[in-house]
Amino acid sequence: MNMKTLLIVVGVVVVLGGAYFFANNKPQAGQTPAPTVAPVATTAPSEGAMMKKNQTDVTLTQDGFTPQTVTVKVGDKVVWTNKSGSTATVHSNPHPIHTDYKPLNLGKFDDGGTLEFTATEKGTYQYHDHMHPNRTGTVVVE
User: Fold this and answer.
1) pTM of the model
2) Which residues partner with 91 through β-bridges?
3) Rounded to an integer, what is the distance from CA 48 to the centroid of its chain?
């Protein structure tokens, strides 16, 4: 293969790789406003969850997410607070590709920080801390 052909092949690979990267690298839900749905009345919070009107709080510590499973209604908000002592994430399963439920790919949050998710469709969604994938949780949207 001569040098000109090699440069053309490398150029095509770089262009295609860049196109793939930009097509699949959309802003994470924590960085842009997520679509919202008008709040609806809620029922009792999941066991161990702190509940404000239409909001369920989850705390991340070094031991993981508490509560590990929350059940909310469409339109409700889940707020994660990081008390783990280090930067962490909330990302949908599976680790490390986060493809099961992209709206739950909320990204990084520092110790003391929060991330928010507004439930827009019914389902059961599992997530994890990408930096510590043994820290897992589930959001059930009814």
Assistant:
1) 0.64
2) 128
3) 21
8 A C-beta contact, residue 99 and residue 113? no
- β-pair partners for 136: 128
| Total tally of structural domains belonging to the chain | 1
Q: 63 CB contacts (<8 Å, ≥6 apart)?
A: none
The single residue listed with the structure tokens 């909320």 is 106
Strand (E) or helix (H) holding 13 = helix 3-24
41 inside domain: no
Sign of CA dihedral 94, 108, 124, 36: negative
In what helix (H) or strand (E) does residue 124 lie, and over which residues does it extend?
A: strand 123-129
pLDDT in tens, the chain (142 residues): 676 665 575 555 555 544 444 445 544 454 444 433 333 333 344 444 454 579 999 999 999 999 999 999 999 999 999 999 999 999 999 999 999 999 999 999 999 999 999 999 999 999 999 999 999 999 999 9
Residue 28 lies in a domain: no
**CATH, residue 89:** 2.60.40.420
Question: Does residue 81 sit within a domain?
Answer: yes
Tracing tokens 């809620």 back to the chain, one arrives at 42
